[in-house]
Recover the amino acids of this structure.
């Protein structure tokens, strides 16, 4: 892990890393209830829970451990990370303002016998580390629950420490086409 964190890939800007991964940030998904996608308070950005939503609005649903595999749900958590990053971009104007991903809370719509919640939420954690390098390594909780809105497979929220400097504006369309579809 130390060699990976010291590699030049981890010193790239978040936008360069997204481009290398073939990810184009979507528009942030709209809230499904009476809340906002984020709250910026001082140098802390609080992100509301996001789910595995494709840019066309399609959601991945089902119960992990009962029709949805750990590997499929890992990819759903990775897609959810892309949506969280899209909210960060909209909120901050410049992903380089992300000082650290402080904490993730991952919820898995799981069958009662399912015991690999941590492996599912690794899909989000792994992408945060790929995009933000050492600043993407965070504290985390992963829980299995009986249901989620729309029967989605995962929901993840984040707390992010940010630099308070003025944002630079970057286009989210400059990267290659997004390949995060499942």
């Amino acid at each position: 892990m130390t060699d990976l964190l010291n590699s030049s890939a981890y010193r790239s800007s978040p936008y360069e890393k997204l481009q290398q991964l073939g990810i184009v940030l979507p528009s942030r998904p709209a809230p499904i209830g009476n809340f906002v996608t984020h709250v910026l308070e001082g140098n802390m950005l609080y992100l509301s829970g996001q789910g595995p939503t494709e840019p066309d609005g399609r959601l991945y649903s089902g119960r992990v451990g009962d029709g949805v595999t750990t590997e499929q749900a890992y990819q759903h958590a990775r897609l959810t990370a892309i949506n969280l990053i899209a909210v960060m971009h909209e909120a901050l104007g410049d992903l380089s303002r992300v000082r650290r991903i402080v904490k993730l809370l991952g919820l898995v719509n799981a069958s009662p016998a399912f015991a690999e919640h941590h492996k599912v939420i690794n899909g989000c954690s792994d992408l945060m580390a790929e995009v933000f390098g050492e600043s993407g390594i965070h504290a985390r909780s992963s829980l299995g629950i009986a249901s989620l809105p729309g029967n989605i497979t995962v929901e993840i929220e984040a707390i992010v420490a940010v630099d308070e400097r003025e944002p630079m504006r970057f286009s989210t369309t400059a990267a290659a086409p997004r390949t995060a579809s499942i």
User: Anything to note?
Assistant: The longest helix spans residues 70-92. The chain has one domain: 2-162. The beta strands are 38-41, 44-50, 63-64, 67-68, 98-109, 139-145, 154-162.
